[in-house]
Amino acid sequence: MTGLTSRAADVRDGKRVLEVVRESNPEWVVLAAAYTDVDGCEGNPDLAFAVNRDGAVNVAVAAKKVGARLVFLSSDYVFDGKKTTPYEIDDARNPQSVYGRTKAEAEIKLLELMPDCCIARTSWLFGIGGKCFPDTILKLAASRPALDVVNDQRGGPTYSVDLARAIVQLCRKAASGIVHVTNAGDCTWCEFAREIVSGAGLATVVRPVSSRQMARPAPRPCYSVLSPTRLRALGIEMPSWHDALRRYLEEREKPVC
Ligand SMILES: NC(=O)c1ccc[n+]([C@@H]2O[C@H](COP(=O)([O-])OP(=O)(O)OC[C@H]3O[C@@H](n4cnc5c(N)ncnc54)[C@H](OP(=O)(O)O)[C@@H]3O)[C@@H](O)[C@H]2O)c1
């Protein structure tokens, strides 16, 4: 397995992307790279489309040229959040943010270009080693007696370790088309924050607030729970987000070697 970073290739540079894909001669390419600053995308739509849509096309073209299959990581933000039951893979896309539009347009282009590609939509990612919601909450909770967290957005937290395992299984099963990959269960950000704080043994009070009280540049879907129906049909079961969070908190406690 070859792990490539932005230092190896900028996905906007189609020629370089083809070079690095050729060098690693893969059976599968997993495209996780993206401009993921959802609020930043609102102010920089050209950059957002160049990286998230056109960059994804560059990677798909390269994968096709070397005869590799592709898994593209997409997002719950392709949906408008107006449903009240989990989104199925064939529900209509209706993104409300620039970031969501970049991902929705990338999905459409990739499926045209490479009908057997696999679009893995995920949501609310967290993991060791980067900025993520649990990390932010734990850092804030360590120094504050109370935190305000939005309680009117519901989604599915997903541990990067579980997502990675599911992607490996998707490749082994030669999956194609759209599949939703999140940890099982759903919650609001406030409910998630409460479990993070209690799981870490902190006494910080987490107070529910509305999205309106925490206005941000990009609109977020108020409901973006993704249905696992297709994932289950492929024989893949995800652990609950409660279990995933417990393992994440344990992992954080381990000394860095
Ligand atoms: N985070 C979430 O909650 C969430 C939810 C749904 C879907 N997703 C999707 O899941 C994937 C991983 O998300 P993440 O949150 O783990 O992302 P992340 O931590 O922001 O990492 C994104 C990576 O993309 C690289 N990158 C950015 N621009 C690039 C470019 N022009 N060329 C090459 N590489 C570039 C970054 O490299 P540098 O660090 O060097 O800039 C970084 O390594 C993304 O496709 C994202 O859209 C994420």
Features:
257 residues, alpha/beta, 4-stranded parallel sheet, two-stranded parallel sheet, globular, binds NADP nicotinamide-adenine-dinucleotide phosphate
Short description:
This protein has helices spanning 14-24, 38-43, 45-66, 98-113, 133-141, 160-172, 189-199, 229-233, 241-253, and strands at 28-31, 69-75, 118-122, 125-126, 146-150, 154-155, 158-159, 177-180, 187-188, 205-209.
- Please state how the strands of the largest beta sheet are arranged side by side: 1-2-3-8
Enumerate the spans where pLDDT stays under 50 for 5 or more consecutive residues.
none
**CA distance, first residue to last residue:** 22 Å
Beta-strand fraction estimate: 5-15%
How much helix, percentage-wise, in residues? 40-55%
Order of helices and strands: HEHHEHEEHEEEHEEHEHH
Small-molecule binders here are: NADP nicotinamide-adenine-dinucleotide phosphate
State the assembly state of the protein chains: single chain
- The overall strand count is 10
Major sheet attributes: 4 strands, parallel
On the 0 to 100 scale, the average pLDDT is 97
Describe the global form: globular
Number of helices: 9
- Structural class by secondary-structure content: alpha/beta
Radius of gyration: 18 Å
Topology of helices and strands:
Blueprint: H1 14-24, E1 28-31, H2 38-43, H3 45-66, E2 69-75, H4 98-113, E3 118-122, E4 125-126, H5 133-141, E5 146-150, E6 154-155, E7 158-159, H6 160-172, E8 177-180, E9 187-188, H7 189-199, E10 205-209, H8 229-233, H9 241-253
Parallel strand pairs: 1-2, 2-3, 3-8, 4-7, 5-10
Antiparallel strand pairs: 6-9
